[in-house]
Amino acid sequence: MNKIEHIGIAVNSISSAADIYQKLLNTPVYKIEEVASEGVKTAFLQNGPNKIELLEAMIDNSPIAKFIAKRGEGIHHIAFDVDDIEAEMQRLKDEGFVLLNDTPKPGADNKLVCFVHPKSTNSVLIELCQSM
Questions:
Q1: Nearest 5 degrees, angle CA 52-CA 57-CA 58?
Q2: What pLDDT tens digit does each residue of the chain (132 aa) get?
Q3: Which pTM was predicted?
Q4: Contact 103/36 with Cβ under 8 angstroms?
Q5: What letter would DSSP give residue 91?
Q6: Fewer CB within 10 Å of terminal CB in the chain, N or C?
């Protein structure tokens, strides 16, 4: 793993949360997009080398909707940049981690992604990201 790629924050409303984070970080949202396969709308902010991804549920049974219903708004995941997502997935499997995906899938911000089950990582959802 190269670096933290971004921190994902589950929110009820991207427009409300974007106002807060744009003021907090003194930087604009640079991209808003929908990831239909996850039932989520995302917004990205960049502050120096750091990125924040705001995640809003588009459908009631999406992972983000379920997360907010159970835990409320807040940090959802930490994403790490990797050079070879398939090799990293295999390395983590070999180390005994449980992956939520058998293969990488398209994610937001032009990335291939895979998630590591929080039961394997002290209750923190980890995302692997590889640029496409």
A1: 125
A2: 899 999 999 999 999 999 999 999 999 999 999 998 889 999 999 999 999 999 999 999 999 999 999 999 999 999 999 999 999 999 999 999 999 999 999 988 889 999 999 999 999 999 999 998
A3: 0.91
A4: no
A5: H
A6: C
